[in-house]
Amino acid sequence: MILNKKNLFFLMFVQLLCTWISHATTLVLPAAGNVVGEIQYGLAEANETIDEIGRRFDVGYYELVRANPRIDARQSLIANSRLVIPTQYILPNVPRKGIVINLAEYRLYYFPENENVVISFPVGIGRKGWSTPLGVTKIVAKEANPKWRPTERLRLEAEKNGDFLPDEFPSGPYNPLGQHALRLGWPTFLIHGTNRINGIGSRVSAGCLRMFPDDIEYLFRMVPIGTPVRVINEPVKIGKQDGAWMVQVHPLLSEQLGVSLKSEVERQLKGHDIPNLIHSKVIQNELKYPTGIVRKI
């Protein structure tokens, strides 16, 4: 690389990002194709849990579980257990602008304006019956040390379970929103931190998007108010890398009644004018057990 002013500025920008991010996955966008990152492999420390490994590599719970089907996620891991760390992604097939959240893969993509990088984080999403909405909105406010005001629905649910929620939680270590929150144009829905790390990358929230504390702190610093936010549900992604077709398959969310994973794969392949690849052994294996790992078809 020739270090002209433009390239030097880009290198300084990436270095600055690294000083701000302890775990965030920062990836240079490819000149051709739409696959970023690469698979890693890691060794578990003694008695480490899946959630702890997830925080160490900035990968979500379900991402790790599906990429490592032989691991018992309910137990602490044996020291030096070898794990696949699925840190390669096909970028969602939507405009690369602002924040894009793909619920099916429990992952957020942030495209800084006028920069050739994407920064990605795992997120927790709405649990069954408390779905995170789909569509386009924007960040309307940023709150450090936010207060939490449970909705009426949350308070009623707590009462049914014999619990009590106050009208307002003060900021502090017991606040479920953590130390940073990004308010969206959708009332009651936020992108926020947490006072617990368990469950990032799974269905844990009442519809909000939950992030590791380090990740939301970085995102909070970087994104301006007005940043567009697009929430999609794309369980199947088709991409290209070095001229070869690639596929990334995630399980359907439980709300997708009447839809099959096979029909989603067929729809995506047809959209790329490669319908015959449905018979690929790789695709057939992913249909039987979706790993979320990027595979060459």
UniProtKB/TrEMBL annotation:
Enzyme's top EC category: transferase
Protein name: L,D-transpeptidase ErfK/SrfK
Transmembrane regions: none
Pfam families given in the database record: YkuD
L,D-TPase catalytic domain location: 97-232
Pathway: Cell wall biogenesis; peptidoglycan biosynthesis
Entry superkingdom: Bacteria
Signal peptide coordinates: 1-24
One GO MF term: glycosyltransferase activity
Positions of the catalytic residues: 192 (proton donor/acceptor), 208 (nucleophile)
Keywords, sorted A to Z: Cell shape, Cell wall biogenesis/degradation, Glycosyltransferase, Hydrolase, Peptidoglycan synthesis, Signal, Transferase
GO process terms (BP): cell wall organization; peptidoglycan-protein cross-linking; regulation of cell shape
EC number: 2.-.-.-
Record GO cellular component, one term: extracellular region
Family: Belongs to the YkuD family.
